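Allow me, if you will, to draw on your knowledge of protein folds for a short while. Thank you for your consideration; the sequence and its tokens are set out here:
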Amino acid sequence: MKRLLTGWIVTLLLVVSTMPVAAASLTKDYVLLYRQSEAVVSVDARHGLSQRKLEQLTPKIALVRLTPGEKHKLEKDQEVVAVVENILATIDAQVIPWNITMVQAPTAWVSGTADTVKVAVIDTGIYLTHPDLAANIKGQYNAINPRKTANDDNGHGTHVAGIIAALNNTLGVVGVAPDADLYAIKVLDSRGSGTLANLIKGINYAISIDVDVINMSLGFGSATEDQLIPLHEVIIDAVEANITVVAAAGNDPAIQTSLPARYPEVLSVAAIAQNRTLASFNSVGKIDFTAPGVSIYSTYKKSYATLSGTSMASPHVAGAVALILARPTSDLDADGTITPLEVEAVLQAISVDLASSGFDSVSGWGLIDLSRLP
């Protein structure tokens, strides 16, 4: 839904670790970023990658299995931007019970509940038959094994999806944007663990189906920009495709905002408690907005559960983005297209200060308040 809609439009924070490698083997899996897609054939031929390539993830990014020597040679190739290890990510969510009304979502439903706005939940999948979600699930993709469904065997992704778009019915809970179209993109397994390569595949799939919003309630802990260069590349591709990308800031105050939330193209979200105090577990550094993230009750596998974390804060903003995209007034320059920059400007305008006046590094622009939407 990149064009303007008119009328009624009705964390899992990941902790980085390296992939296990058998003691007898010197090879590891790496994500390779070519300088240009046109260079793929020549680079592959030059380094004999035909037997080393596991998968072409995007036209410019591939998953390869290399020895240290092969990696070293590739890194010296002028047609190669980066060769980074296919690192793992794992869940870091806390269990604790409250409600999502603090963001004033019901006041926005009078003008539309985001029907036909496409939101990709890149996570552990979504429990596809959950009665509070099933009618809103319009598509799915399993990046771990494309031959399988994106059904959630962990629960985290289902919890996130419910915060975004649980149905406004007689069951359980209601989401921020209760009629948004959900797309389950599974990049994390039953333990909440997933690789860099699978996350790239998931984002690339979201681009290919022309979603409007991506939510990533995940992160790579203390991983550096250099370790994740290919991830930044595909996120830039998503934003250039007019997709608003939202991510959890992180659940460790000892480290700065985790990636991907730390990227300038991504809206980073910190968590707040019911008393409007910042959660003690928030990572710090690059924070754009704040949303409820302590004791959040939402959908979970076949039922419901209460979880806490910036993983829970991020989908509040993703749901708010869906509502913003459903409103003609969000097209600030009246050119018929609502861009991620326009979405961010609207979010800034409706946010309420929590710390110092205006923008600050601990709560960003503040708590989103959908009652302030024009």
Observations:
- The mean pLDDT is 89.
- The chain has eight helices and 18 strands.
